[in-house]
Amino acid sequence: MKGKIGLEEHFAIEDTINDSAGFFPDEIWEELRGRLFDLHDKRLRLMDQHGVEMMILSLNAPAVQAIHDPKRANEVARKANDYLAEQVRKRPDRFQALAALPMQDADMATRELERCVKDLGMIGALVNGFSQIGDANTIAYLDEKQYWPFWAMVEKLDVPFYLHPRNPLPQHAKIYEGHGWLMGPSWAFGQETAVHALRLMGSGLFDKHPNINIVIGHMGEGLPFSMWRVDNCNAWVPDRHKYPAKKRIADYFQSNFYITTSGNFHTPALLNTMMVVGADRILFSTDWPFENIDHAALWFDAATISEEDRLKIGRTNAQKLFKLKGA
Ligand code: GRE
Ligand code: ZN
Predict the structure, then answer these.
(1) Does the Cβ of 204 fall within 6 Å of ligand 1?
(2) pLDDT (tens digit, 9 = 90+) per residue, 146-163?
(3) pLDDT digit string (tens) for 192-217?
(4) Cα–Cα distance between 185 and 130 in angstroms, integer?
């Protein structure tokens, strides 16, 4: 399929590049390092080869979320955002941008989001899970009350918010001790992000701000498969669930969430996701440079779905969600 749009597609700057090391053997890291810095060369060539018309770009992970000092987090976010905006201005037909945000300070994050959207022309934000604030061990999740004024701005600006994975802190990762292969994209990323998304759904945030659109990657971080059980576990027990939100968790999942195919190029997972949220809420993505464009595109182009759904998932859903030209 030609004209695909991807929206979990990363780059890095000098200040953040090393956050992506450590997930890969040295020789692979050399390749990835180059891929993260490159925008206009190999990246565009591969996009051309595999029918990807546009990448909506975002900074690598955890990057700004792991900079404990709020002032420094703000500086690095601004630097990355200014750089990205400058690159997008060179090829707005091929690249658009999601803002990195210093969530260490909700006011700062709100101001930076507004600046990125209004002054730099960005079309959304991407945040890497919880933020470390003041020291390595003090963390905040995005459902916490300090962030609700920030969410009011997300709704007001009407831009999608991508909730991207990061690893849990070591003290929250005891279950993975001695089983390091489960950290990162194989399992811990998805677990961390799924719970974070469930916290948002149960918090009542979407009752107060029903027009917020959250995007999650990796075919929904396992949530489509588990959503029925989340709402129905022990359904014979009265008042089994107590959370601030008014509706079933699945109601928010189906109204406030979009899901991308990033890093999960598997047709049974896609079909399950289509059955749970529908083809209108699923969007093609690769997770470049951590996954290969050819793996994503060759799978997606041949996946056993209708051509109508392929066009929606590959292109038109993204055009609509991000109000891109041609929508
Ligand atoms: C990602 O962005 O999803 C990612 C990383 C690091 C390793 C693998 C991966 O940030 O998929
Ligand atoms: Zn990613």
Answers:
(1) no
(2) 999 999 999 999 999 999
(3) 999 999 999 999 999 999 999 999 99
(4) 16
- What pTM value is reported for the model? 0.98
> pLDDT tens for residues 107-130?
999 999 999 999 999 999 999 999
Ligand whose nearest atom lies closest to the CA of 187 = 1
CB-proximal residues (5 Å) to ion ligand 2: 8, 287
Ligand nearest 23 Cα, by number?
A: 1
Ligand 1 centroid to residue 126 C-alpha, Å: 13
Inter-residue long-range contacts of 140-145, CB under 8 Å, 24+ positions, other chains counted:
140/103, 140/104, 141/196, 141/199, 142/103, 142/196, 142/199, 142/200, 143/199, 143/200, 143/202, 143/203, 143/205
Element (H, E) at 242: none
Q: Which member of 287, 294, 301, 309 is catalytic?
A: 287
In the reported structure, the alpha carbon of residue 204 is separated from the centroid of ligand 1 by a whole-number distance in angstroms of 29
